[in-house]
Structures are given as C-alpha cells and as structure tokens.
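pasting for ref
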Amino acid sequence: MEKIVIIGGVAAGATAAAKARRLSASAHITLLEAGPDISFANCGLPYYIGGDIENRSSLILQSPESFKEQYNVEVHTHTLVSSIDRQAHRVVAMDVRSGEQKNFEYTKLILAQGGRPVTPTLPGADLRHVFTLWTLEDMDNISRHLSENSPKSAVVVGGGFIGLEMAEALVKRGLKVHVVELMPHVMSVMDAETAGFITAELMAYGVDVHTRVGVTEITSSQVQLDDGMLIDADMVLLSIGVRPTLQLAREAGLQIGESGGLLVDAYLQTSDPDIYAAGDMVEIDHRVNGKKVRIPLAGPANRQGRIAAENALGGHHPYKGSIGTSVVRVFEAVAGITGLSLKQARAVGFDADAVVVHKEHHTSYYPGSEPVTVMLVFDKATGIVLGGQTAGYKGADKRLDVIATAVASKLTVSDLADIDFAYSPPIGTANDAMNMAAYAAENKLSGYSPSVTAGEVDALVDGKPVLFIDVRDVFAFEKSHVNGARHIPLELLTGQIDSLPHDRLIVVYDETGKKGHQAVRTLVNAGLSHVVNISGGHQSLQRLALTVGFQHVKVALLPIEAKRINDEKQEKTTEAQQAPMQGEGPVLVDVRTPGEFLMGAVPGAVNIPLDELDRRYGELGNNSGRDITVYCASGARSAYAQMFLQQLGYTNVKNGGGITRMMAMYRQQAS
C-alpha cells in the first residue's frame, strides 16, 4: 500500500492531498501542518482586514475534520517536522502543543512547506505594533490591533502585492498610510509606466509613496527612513518579500537550486526519487527564457500540487514551468504582468521590443467605457510574444489573460492581430485593445510606423538634437507637455511640414499614441525619414514621470484628482457657464457634450450639444439668416448640426469643423 506523507497543508499541500485521494482509493495519505490551519485562502487576508470580506469563516476552505470526511486524509495540525530519514523513509515530527514526538512512514513524500515573510534585522522590528501578514493568525493579530488600539497612522514597508493590498485595507479602516519601497517604484516586477498607474491611484486615495528609500529604525510611534525622514506610525506592516522554507530539505541533504529554491526536475521530483515538492519552496523553469526561477504565486502552487501527487502515485506528468502571470487590484485600479518585461527580455538575450496602446475597454459611445492599457513585448526576429503588461479600471485582467495565452502558446504578434475577440458595444470593441497592440507591433516590426516606449525616450534623446512635436489639441498642450516641444495639432501638421528640419530626429506624440502614428505616417510620406512616435503618447509619459522620472526630458505632472472611500458615484454636473445669446449678430455654437466643452472651447462659443439641438435651437433666435457657425471635435457632429439647422430654415449656417482648426483661426484673428 502506498503511504503518501505531505508536509505543508495550504495551497500546494492541500491540493496534492485531494488529488492523491482522487487518484487512489487505497493509499494512506497523511497531511502534516506546522500551523493551526490548513487550506485557507491566504490571498484573501488583506480583504478581510479591509472589510471587503465580512466573514472570517469565508477564508477557511477546509478543516482537518472536513478533509478527513471528504477525502479520508489524516490531518495533523500544530505538527512540526524536525527531520527526514531518507533511508528509513520516515519523518520525525512533534506536536508543538504537547511536545509529543511522532513518526510517520512514507513510500512517497511530498514537500509543500511554502515560504515565510522576510523579517528585516533592524531596530524595532520586533515591537508589538509591527506585523507581517501570511497566516490567519497574522490576520487576526492585525485585526485585533486595529480594533483595540484604533491606530491613526500606518507605514507599509514594501510596495509589492501584499503591501499594496494592505495599504488599501488600512485606508479603508481609516488610517493615514505611507508606503515605503526601496526600489525605484512600487510593483517593481512591473515596468515603471505600468506602476505609474497604480501609484497615481494610491496617491488619489491619500497614500504617501516613498521610493528609493529604506527603513533604518522603528520606534513605538515612528518609522525612520535612511534619508533621515521620520514618519508617524501607530502600526507597521513589513512586506518586503518571501523566503522559501528550506531548512528541513537542506538538513535532509536535498539539492538546492541556483535561484535559491528547492531543486526539482520536470516531474517535480527532488534529488531523492521518493521525495517530490511543490509550491513556493521550489524553483522551476521559466517558460519563456528557460531560466530557473522562484515564482511564489497561488496558481502555479496549486497546479504543482496536483502534478506532484499524480507523479508520486506513478504518473509521468511533466510540469511545463510558469510564465509568472500576476495581477493586483489597488482600490479601483488593476495592473498585471505576464512573461518577460522588455528589460528582462533584453537582459536574457532576446532582441526584444515593445509597444503600448491605451484604448477603451468597450465602445466609447456605450456608457461606462474606461481606457485599458496594453504593453506587448515581442521578439524582433520572430514576432513571438514574450510577455506583456496591462492596466486599467476595467478589462485589464481579460487582456492580461490573452497575453498569457499568447506567451504560453508562442503566438506571434501577427497571430494576435488576426484573433476575433468577443465584441458587443457593452463588452468590447470591434478592434480590441489586443488587436490594436498587435497592429502597432506589426507596424513597428515592418518599419511602417517607428516608435519608442516612454521608458526608452531618455536614451533616445541623450546628447542628440531632437525636436519634439506635440500633435494634441491646444487645451491638452497647455495643461502639460514635454518641455521645449513644438505644438502642431495633427489637423494642421500637413500645412507646416515645410518648416520642419530634415536633419534632426523628430519625436511626435499625442495623448495615447494613435494620432502620433498618423503624424509619423504624414511626415514619412512627406519625405522626413528620422521620425518616431512615442508609443502610448503623453499618457505613458505622465505615468513614467510620476514614478522614476526622466533625466533628459521634462514633463509637467498633471494634478491627481483626490478620491475618497465610500464616495457615492454621482453624475458630475457639466452645465457650461456661458452668456445668453442676445441680439441678431453672428454666433459660434459648440455642439460637443458639456463635458467636452468644459475641457476647453473656443472663446465666445456657446454650448448646445448635438443631442439637445432639436429642443434648444430656439435659443439661436428667430432670424433665419443669422450667421451661425457650428463646430465639434472633428467636424463630424457639426456636419449633422449644420444639416439639421438648414432643414429648419436657417440659411446661413457654416460647419467650422474641428476645434483644432477653429482655435487656429481664432488665434490668427486675435493676433
């Protein structure tokens, strides 16, 4: 009879036990857990502290009793394994409550001990108001401190997944929160541009973010940083990383790998053929670059647990490795990464490149549309997708899963470009953000539309004579732009080509990259060859400037709109303040929406949105020959307004076209 002993009872261990029982009705399966709980939802701990999960019991997926009843698995909690006797196929353990020593024989052993939070050796790290978060007991200690001591301020040390989730939770509990991160930006596994989206959300909710600094001391009421700054802190959460639990494996003489995790082969077998391992403690192959890595994530841990159990019972199921897909939600903002970043891809030898697009997650005309960002990393020689990142308030997870599928399947950017994604106005767009990212990558690979990411701009302009051209409208330009950029709205670009230098690199950008692509094609077709577009446009420049900044480029940061927890989402009133139309003189009518009008309009214009024109045209007066000029964003809606007014009998109605041309005319007349 097979005797399967599993050490570790959370993600990988509990999954291995359940899988083993499904494979064998006769095997004797024993699960040993050093702590008091098995099979609990450790990823959900911050959400209970923050109040999103109301009931603690929701986090308990199994108990020793339910595991015994459902799977006939013998579970021993509070049981610390002290040694493995590989020759005798026996583990020695102790009940930490009673001190009783126990021996468990095995034919196959599965190690699933996971990891533990790294605790820094700095003064004050052992104070009672300093916490880590890894177990239900940790969660209970934090919740008790919040309830009994009513802290007003907190410092979260570490800007990774757990750190940022806990920053949100503590804000929801009413604390003033600071996040301290030693790396140049929070979410260091992501590019600075993606992290900028999360950083802006943290700041919007009042979280102070301190990067490139470390903690030197924790006192009863403050945290001191290595730059001398003191931060008030009634509680401190340490979240600076996870270290694999390897003492038992080391003492048993099992081989440790090059990345610091327990070495296993493709079948999750350790250097001992009768011992398998899974979860956060092992090192595995990265599916893109083939390197040995540690990826402490719940998804890979659960899959490894299943495979380890299968192979321990005679199976031959290889684990293909991981691509490290991970995602975080901070307040309403979501960002994720899969595969390799551009920097990682180049570091391991790929001739890699990347593009960025910002596009609405469903059609812009359907209510609730939000922009979603897609960064696609690909191999220049083959076009194969190597990785990517996404960010947005809606739809970021969906696009991340698409990229993960492409990476795992070794799809090319052309494969992605040709995929039919689900489309309906409330759900998607006819050309999804993934299609658009793939198109941009194809255009870059072919040379049809040269571009650089925001992160590459500094190196591009270092020591070179460069002309930046901002092709956005005047209102966007006046709020923020690259210092020294020349403002030429896209609609006016053709008329100013002769004034542009042919001997300098021209870098164009718009808000999201789309019009920048049009500008590149306009300039290339006019004979200018040294032209590139900033992929992702001004929006990407803003996110990078907010995190790591630029050395050779200056971009004014836009203000971050403050948000509050539990704010009721109300429709913003956008009634434009304007003078009534009096007399019979010429009138300029802006037929855009009130929101668009408030973003900037031609001086002297009045706002009658196209959708309201049928009931408000009387405001134009009774003179059918009155000189009326209508305009909108591009000239399309104003063409309909012109036709409608003409049908009503107004004989002197002109379509002024888009706001860019109208502003150019206004400025020309004013000068």
